[in-house]
Every structure is written in structure tokens, then in C-alpha cells.
Amino acid sequence: MKTKKRLFYTFMILPFILTFFALFFLPDQIPAHYGSNNQVTRWGSKYETLIFPIITAIFGAFMLCITNWSAKQEKSGTNNVKVSLLLGLVSLILFNAMTFYFLYAAFHKVENLSSVPIDLFQLIFGIFGVGMILIGNVMPKLRMNSVIGLRTVWSMKNETTWKKSQRFGGITFILTGIVTILACFFTKGVACSLWSIGALCIISVADIIYTYRISKKY
């Protein structure tokens, strides 16, 4: 638990520290926005790079609040806290990767993101897919709460529907993660995002239908 918290705080403030030092080396004008065709649509001040690290820190603080809230709803054990920290940690790693990516683009004044060796969508959804697999493996351990997990009106009907829903949700999360990673290997750009989001939407519908059916049975 202590190791996870250390990593959490590290990834929470690391983007700000790196960006602060990067400001001494970045050009005064950097690409500030890209269009759907990966071309620069607006140039801005290098100090705009501080916006994303600040958002990362705020998001990290929000996830800490979620962790504390879920802990209060857990009468015994720390399963909910562990899952909350893992969810926050995966999200922060994603934010860190995006920070490094955009700092690279800013430093090199990249006008076309297609020229960057790593595709942004592959990077984002690749990390997202790994996170889905990790979270899916621990979801069955979640105790009933109003913060995290596969939560619907039906999954929270009683302890039996909750446990079965989290077990099913864990499986669907893992499958979604695998599909997303495969999509990142074989596609890039918008196609990669469409495959990934499509898989997530399908699994979400399957999860809702399952919780409804299981609540009728129990």
C-alpha cells in the first residue's frame, strides 16, 4: 500500500517538475493545438505547457478524495482503497505519458504529429488497455460501495448481485483491455481510437444487461 501511494504522489507531481525545468529549454513559441489531421492549428506561449501538469495534479487530488471516500464505506479490509489507488495510478501514468509526448512535440516544434515516431492514439489507448487488464484482475475483490466498480441499480441490489457483477465486470474489463491493445498494434490514429472506444461501448452495454439479468435471478 505504501509503495502504491509513493508512486501515486510521484506521478502526480512529476509532470509539473519536468515541465518546470523544460521551460528553460523550450522555444518561446510552441505548437499549442493540433487539428484532427494532426496539423498545428494554433501556436502559443511555452508557459501553456504548465496547464496539463496542473490538471494532472488536480485530478490526482480528486482521486485521493475518491480513495478516502471508498475507504470510509469499507467496514473491513482495504480492497476498495487498493483498487481506487490502482485506478488513479493508471490514470496518472496516462497523464504523464501525454505530458512527455507534448513536451517532445513542443521542444521539436512539431507541426505534424504524424511525423512523431509514436502515434498519440496508440500511446493513450495502449496504456488504457493495460490499465483495463490490471483493474479487471482486482475488480472481483471490491466490496460494495457507491464510488467504484461496476455500479448499477441492479448490481447494488444485494451482496450476491454485487459480487457476481464485479466478477463479470472484471472479465469484460480484461477482454476490453486485450482488444484495445490489439487495436493499438494493428491500427493507429482515429482508427485506433474508434476500435478502442467501440469495444468499451459494447462491453458497457453487456455489463448493464448482465447486472439487470442477475438482479432478476437473485
Write the layout of secondary structure elements.
Layout: H1 2-22, E1 29-34, E2 40-45, H2 51-72, H3 79-107, H4 120-138, H5 159-186, H6 189-217
Antiparallel strand pairs: 1-2
- Report the order of strands and helices: HEEHHHHH
Task: Determine Rg (CA atoms, Å).
Answer: 20 Å
Total number of helices:
6
Strand order of the largest sheet: 1-2
Poorly predicted parts: none
Q: Largest sheet, if any? A: 2 strands, antiparallel
The outline comes out as globular
Estimate the strand proportion. 5-15%
How is the quaternary structure best described?
Answer: single chain
Q: Give the rounded overall mean pLDDT.
A: 89
**Which range best describes the helical content: under 10%, 10-25%, 25-40%, 40-55%, 55-70% or over 70%?**
55-70%
User: How many extended strands?
Assistant: 2
Please give a structural write-up.
The chain has 218 residues and is mainly alpha-helical. It has two domains: 1-113; 118-218, no CATH class. It has helices spanning 2-22, 51-72, 79-107, 120-138, 159-186, 189-217, and strands at 29-34, 40-45. A hairpin with a 5-residue loop joins strand 1 and strand 2. A two-stranded antiparallel sheet has the order 1-2.
Give a quick summary of the entry.
The protein is mainly α.
Distinctive features:
218 residues, two-stranded antiparallel sheet
